[in-house]
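Listing S7. Sequence submitted for prediction.
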Amino acid sequence: MKLLLIWPQIDQSLFSYKPLLDIFGDKGQFFPLPLISAAAHFPEHWELRLLDMQFEQLSEKDIGWADYVLVAADNLQIDSLLKNTDITRANAKVIVFGEALSALVCQGLDHITMVKGDFGEMSKTCREKTVAEEITEDMVSGNLKQTYETIPCNETYQFMVPRYDLVEPRLYFSLSLKLSKGQGRNYRRKPLKQIVSELDILYSLSGGFKSIYLTDDDLIGDVKENNERREQFILLLEYIHDWQCKNSFPFDFFFHGTLSSAHDELTGVFKKMADAGISIMLLPLNRCHQTTFGAQSRDEVQKICSKVDFFRKQGIGVFGKVTIESHIKVRDVDFFAQLIKNTSIPVVFVDTSLHGNDDHKLNEQMQLRLLREIYQPSKYFARCIRWISEWNDEYVAKRMTGTVRANQDYRRVIRGIMLQGFKRRYAISYWYYLIQVLVRFSYKPARFSLAVFLGYMYEVMYGQLIASYTKRKTIPLTSHHSIKKEGIEVNG
């Protein structure tokens, strides 16, 4: 049986890491972990082939080669999937899974076979088999069902080692790894030996010097209240730390976190995370639409600032994420801008929650308003300097870990300077930033490396700002700053 695995193109209108790919010399933005994890459930003697549309073209010949086509359909990939007629026409043999299945139904593609849930979970219609086992039998017989559903949180779930042999990790900007599954009572962690084995595979295939995104739904979870869970988590951190030490710290890791985990009781846990190289947190900041403004708003900002400062003192770097939700007002956006300024979080991703209606048009206006405020070059680089100056780099400074060495690669530095220092209108702010970095951090390798990386990251944020401005040219912007004055070129 021949199975073609397709990883669709990622939507570039929201966040495009292409500038980083150009600077780093990589090809792929997002590692296809969901696809190779699903592939692990199919028979070993089957002929599997993965096509990543981030840097490969899909042709009718590719579709014709396969007996069946397995497609990932996450939210950022749905547009690419819907636009590709080669995939949608081959509906008789296409199997789709992922977060965006409802969007396919809305587009009239409900005749494509859909898998709702994890391939390793037990089937809802045949409870003695996993969905993977059921769908494998149906593929062999040629009688695919329209829908396959799982019974979530099955206690007998078996973690499979993803088919890393189907991809070339060296081509990707960052890698992905899943340590556990589920939340709360349904939380299940991979065996420690399997985690170490997967790290060995990723290291051997990629050569190291990369970041790994931990895709866990609930990495930290209830470790504060649950002593057993805390002991298990600390043991996991010790295993990762020992592996890192054995291999000279080839990776650093980033993960999703929450403000609620900023608690004194977890100080030791976060220090162990930083010591293991799990040192970057993506933190959602979606509170502005619920906040009462005035004195209470200022108190709220101070509380959040103290929690962000808690992470920074433990050696955890923070990237923020803001979702502009419905019925948002200008004062809400101003609250966010003030919060980001006070916390000095350098990189904050700004998204909108609605699409294709009047509320979304308003949200785009508010999105641009916030982007314009936080990504004026002088403000962004000032936040970077302040964040790095106050960051506890004790654990990273012990060794040249993961991307610390990679960020100082002379080829990256030269490509970054040529692009940002000579081809962008924010070049003056960029050069001023580089001078400050050299003066303050040249003898502190960890901080210097982070400063260089944050310099690269501005090109990504700058791209989002230009894309948003291009879509909404008539939006009233914040106060008196003009595009030209701040050095933001509209035409790229």
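Caption to Listing S7: primary sequence and predicted structure tokens for the chain studied. The radius of gyration is 23 Å. Residues 288-295, 474-492 have pLDDT under 50 and may be disordered.
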